[in-house]
Amino acid sequence: MTDHGETTRKGGEIRNFGTQTYKVVGTRPIRHDGTDKVTGRAVYGGDIRLPGMLYGQILRSPHAHARIQRIDTSRAEALPGVHAVVTAADLPDTTGGRIDLGEGHADTKYMRDNILAGDKVLYRGHAVAGVAAVSLHVAEEALALIDVDYELLEPVIDVETAMKDSAPLLHEGLTTTELNEDTGRKSNIAMHIRHEMGDVQQAFAGAAHVAEAEIRTATVHQGYIEPQNGTASWSEDGQLTIWTSTQGSFTAQKQLATILDIPVSKVRVIPQEIGGGFGGKIPVYVEPVAALLSRKTAHPVKIIMTRADVFESTGPTPGSYVRVKMATDASGKLVASEAHIALEAGAFPGAEIGAAAMCVFSCYDIPHAVVDGYDVVVNKPKSAPYRAPGATQVTWPVEKVMDDLARQLGKDPVAFRLDNAAAEGTRRVDGIVYPRIGGRECLEVARDSDHYQSELSGPYRGRGMAIGYWFNIGLKSAVTASVNADGTVHLVEGSTDIGGTRTSVAMQFAETLGLDAADIYPSVGDTSAIGYTDVTGGSRVTYATGWAAYEAAEDVKRQMIERAAILWESSADQVEYSDGVFKTRDGSKSADFKQLAQKLEDTGGPVVGRATVHPDTGVGGSFAVNIVDVEVDPDTGKVDILRFTVIQDAGKAIHPSYVEGQMQGGSVQGIGWALNEEYAYTEEGRMANSTFLDYRMPTSLDLPMIETIIVEVPNPGHPYGVRGVGEASIAPPPAAVAAAVENATGTQLNVLPLRPDRIINAMEDSIPAAAG
Amino acid sequence: MAMVWIPAPWREKLTQGQQQVDVEGATVRQVIEALDARFPGMRQRIIDPEHDRIRHDIAVSVDGEISVEGLRRKVGETSEVHFLPAMAGG
Amino acid sequence: MSKIHVQCTINGEPTEFLCEARQSLLEVLREELGFTGTKEGCNDGNCGACSVTVDGVLVDSCLILAAEVQDKTVGTVEGLASAEGLHPLQQKFLEHASLQCGICTPGFLVASKALLDANPNPSQHEIRHWLAGNLCRCTGYDKIVRAVLDAAGTAE
Ligand code: FES
Ligand code: FES
Asked: Sheet harboring A461-470: ordered strands across?
């Protein structure tokens, strides 16, 4: 039985490497939207109900790869209660173009084909038709009455097969591009990326120690608990309104406008509370179908995915095949490395191969390195970003090789990593030179931690550690702030709030103005109420939207100083503001923020501060280190996590509890990826486990407390030193857990997840390095 | 002079294997023009002429930070300029 | 399809509704009666987001038919707080930052209340065991378990 660890701690440890102390920033106030969320009042996308609303359902392909020969919707349309049926024929067929989603680009044709299949279905679960009816049950019945004739084609469901010349092609017109040059080669390989630095061959030739690993990881899902949903109302004047759970209302707006070929101004997206996303709620799925159905029926239409739909037709993260080879000189300094990374994009191009290729060696200082990355289409749902997309798949092989090298050198794994850790000034394989980063500090804190210093003994017990990296992104954010007569402030931001960012943004605003967090009332504006704001993703909200809040607060401050000057019949340069108090320089007049707010009526009316940002300095990547102890049941191969510690660089933790929450949540997703989670496919390319019963995500019983140590190496590029923390924590757990299991069992493992049968087989073979 | 890091796939074809090249230029656009003068073909690989911007599948970074001003981004005397595949997060 | 007339008590209020035989309690709560605090994550009994109590027993409301609650007492998340304020569990969930996206929260609260009603002093293991039917993808459970321990006063 798992010993779940100590329970008294209220908040985790914080290790400070030069951050400042603030009044609001760094405290743990109750989140602003908390009461609504614990009482059931908060309105999520699925909770929307409009007068005259119809319920939509989507018919999905039962086949992994087939040509659609004919769709006959007449029987469905004749069913009483059915208002309309739509297929790809209802989508515009304007061609060409790609759209900028803020986080990467998408090809318009592929996007439409993924919403409703054109001439081919490319995965089981691919949407084929949509129905709107008076009730969910009638819509469901109607699906069974849609007749589709398919010509079955051979599916290809894993990346290695898909890369072969003999593989069936998903897209007849797809050719491989290199960086951005079309090679003209027809293939399932959509893109090949190469980074190269130094003279790799020569460096390997002169190396003293060499190790390599060949790793396969399964397709896994983001696993958010709230299924995708969308409600559309297309009014007679051509205005489309969408209520949805999305990571980015403006990104959803842009996708809808592109897919439906209407101007963005005709689409208003009203973001609802969102029940998790982790990257998977950046693309739209059901919203365009609901829109088409609404236009055809002149009613609002709501579509909610089933859980099976979510598994079979949204997001997963790419399965992968990765080879890594690394070498050191005799003293244990890394001299050379090479990686071959192949990611499954799913049915359409666009796995996060660029990120994987950049992250693979990003924790270390390696003078000679080469990386080849391949974006490969297979007959699975189009992959979507999942927390540090691409990083997790490449972290295990690198960390496995690092452990092997440490063993060869007779060094402690953390010490060996510290000897080679990337730091300010290190040039990465993609050529970029690091600014101030916190990887080394994370390793030092790990080394000195109570966990790493503790003894672990007992049969079939083992310890592992690993480090992972995510680069984070900046992008665009907008914030407006209206000062109320009672001295509080209504703050409107464009970033949808998945994990408490209303509060982390409001706290930065409060800090800047010397107010309390409780004085700020943050809300998320729809696309008609706030300036363009990119997705909640890339660990950017607390960083970039927080920065916008800081700038908006400075704007409010400027305006309030002018008001004080009017009030006191002085001039703005004679008024200063500190610690929440405005005063004249001669000290004769003073008023605190609340007092001055009461005088706005008499000094010119409302004060509204605003700011938009698009930071391009100091986005600041984040590192996460794990230490994990496991016990393996030698009879069943089941792995128990005995103790787990995550150490992560947060720059400055605005609200430490929610930073810990990100670290813990990411860690547990990584543990699930390591031990249980996978898409199990039949030979015909059908997912065999599309329920939460069979797709086994970690439950509370599977886990101990997740110990956290926040490392604060301030980000010099941000007003409060923030580094995004949402993602790096998912990268190291599979590597750390696998290392612990290998140590516990004396085996070598090469395939995720580390299923009990795989562990037992490896133990039976018990020939090191020959398992899998 | 700014240092330009040449993406690996372009080295064979354009720069005779050179990994780093020093060129004059006060903006990303000028750097690209200077590069193209020495290694014809650079411009078309980086600039989308129709929209007068960096191609959608490329990101340009100056001193380690992705440029949000694209071609108009200022480049310093000792800056490093990189052309990378455009990327995303989650 | 003819409808069934059901009388029951929801959060202490006598309630009656009409439903189809095939409608789950979850569907009727959300779509007919407006109790949208009860969430749907899977509709097949594997996530616990739809947790409610029926005559004090914790159930997944997606797994029972609405017609089955005739003469029974149903408790949802909307019934936890009162005019006096939040239930201690709700307060502890806020203090411990036990929610991120919050979609699982109503289910965890209803399930945790059922636990504390049955066992006012649960150990950490008992809490983890009881809550194993509720999935949370955001938090890793740490802060949820701490909140329940704190609410029970059994933090070790
Ligand atoms: S919705 Fe009932 S258990 Fe998931
Ligand atoms: S807080 Fe998001 S699923 Fe639990």
From this structure: A13-16, A706-712, A639-649, A622-632, A461-470
Max mean pLDDT among A96-105, A221-230, B7-16 falls in A221-230
Q: What is the pLDDT of residue A772?
A: 37
Site to probe by mutation for ligand 1, drawn from C27, C43, C54, C104 as the one with most ligand atoms within 8 Å of Cβ, is: C43
CA–chain centroid gap for A300, Å, is: 31
In chain A, % of residues over pLDDT 70: 96
Predicted ipTM of the assembly = 0.98
Alpha-carbon distance of C40 to C21, in angstroms, equals 19
Tell whether C108 is within 8 A of chain A (Cβ): no
Q: In the structure encoding, which two tokens stand for residue A360, read together?
A: 């693979």
Cβ separation A226–C103 shorter than 8 A:
yes
Structural domain span for residue B17: 2-85
Total domains, chain A? 4
CB atoms within 10 A of CB A218: 22
Tokens, residue A168: 């069936």
CATH number, residue B64: 3.10.20.30
Nearest CA in chain B to A618: B65
pLDDT, tens digit, for every residue of C118-145? 999 999 999 999 999 999 999 999 999 9
Alpha carbons C20 and C66: distance in angstroms, whole number: 8
- Kindly state whether residues A597 and A486 are assigned to the same domain: yes
- Helical (H) or strand (E) element with C150: helix C142-152
pLDDT, tens only, A460-499: 999 999 999 998 777 889 999 999 999 999 999 999 998 8
Candidates B18, B65, B71, B79, partner chain A, best to mutate (most A CBs within 10 A):
B65
Q: Which residues of B39-66 are buried (b: 16+ CB within 10 A; e: fewer)?
A: beebeebbbbeeeeebbbbbbbbbbbbb
- The pLDDT tens digits for A504-561 are 999 999 999 999 999 999 999 999 999 999 888 767 888 889 999 999 999 999 999 9
Which domains are delineated in chain C? 4-79 (3.10.20.30), 88-155 (1.10.150.120)
